Amino acid sequence: MIRNLLRNGRVEKNLKLKELAAQADIDQTLLSRFEKGSRMPTEKQLNVLGEILGLDMRAARVEWMADKLVGMVQYHPEAMEALRVAESRVEYLTSKKVLDSPSLSEGLALKLEKLDALKAQWAARPVLSPSQLHRMHAFFDVEYTYESNRIEGNTLSLQETALVVNEGLTIGGKSMREHLEVINHSEAIAFVRGIVERKEDLGRRSLMEIHRLILKEVDTANAGRYRQVPVRISGSETELPQPYMLDKLMEDYFEYYEVHRLRLHPVILAAEMHERLVSIHPFIDGNGRTARLVMNLILLRNGYTRANIKGNTESRMHYYRALQSIQEDNNPEPFYQLVTDESLRSIQAHLELI
């Protein structure tokens, strides 16, 4: 129990409660309650105390999490069932199984063949002039910004989004946050395009910069930073990792990319990196927009056009259900199908435009 670790650590350091309270800047009465087990320290308080007492922080976090879990479920008759469900979700996120290559159904493989044939047509297109290229980017960028923000609840219409992006106008009756979300997303698309043009790969630096742009002036303190607090997804039962797990999970995330970027079909890799990011949920906000930009960075990097998942109610629910089929049932097929279908629609639209 964490109370025993804290008390034994203090005794071994020959510290009185008053002395430890002064060093940790934690109320002495609260420290006493930690040691008695009547109160639990926050993760930040645990880290401070662990550093002062020289605790094995991995062991301390395990005990801390175990105590929290017991406190949550000890009086519930469904406790064991809930723990089994949580165990399967944590195993998916932390085990080496997440480095395995996924298998594809015959139907999905045929779709990918069709997509690759269209990709070849796209690659063989006539060279576009700078003005043609600019107009094409402007058309698809505005639509993508509109749909991606719409998924997250932004109420600006497609026309209003275009006016904000292209004319710098302010739309009456709409919040400053909604305007910033449009401007930020447009800048993030330009950043992603720059990565592709420079032939750079996805990495921690590029991910953090994408997220920084998404939250710039919306939540500057958390822009481009992993979250420091636990979060839940509204309306979802999916358990999200605790903050102390994020560094390791994100190391695994980038390891997966390095292992599979030359092994998986690029569309499947894009879908995987999208889903894995939202399942880890490393940021306090902006995870969905960032994950979709990461997906499209990978698609563009490999010669495809952007997959633009629609934000209307039916499409949004289909998108959420496809993600949940992986997170809850470990079935990636619906999400692979969704990303492939959107990639097909996108490349067909691009070919028709030129």
Automatic annotation (TrEMBL):
SUPFAM superfamilies: Fic-like (SSF140931), lambda repressor-like DNA-binding domains (SSF47413). It comes from the Bacteria. InterPro entries: Cro/C1-type_HTH, Fido, Fido-like_dom_sf, Fido_containing, Lambda_DNA-bd_dom_sf. Residues 6-60 form the HTH cro/C1-type domain. It holds the Pfam family HTH_3. Residues 202-341 form the Fido domain. This is Fic family protein. It comes from Marinoscillum luteum.
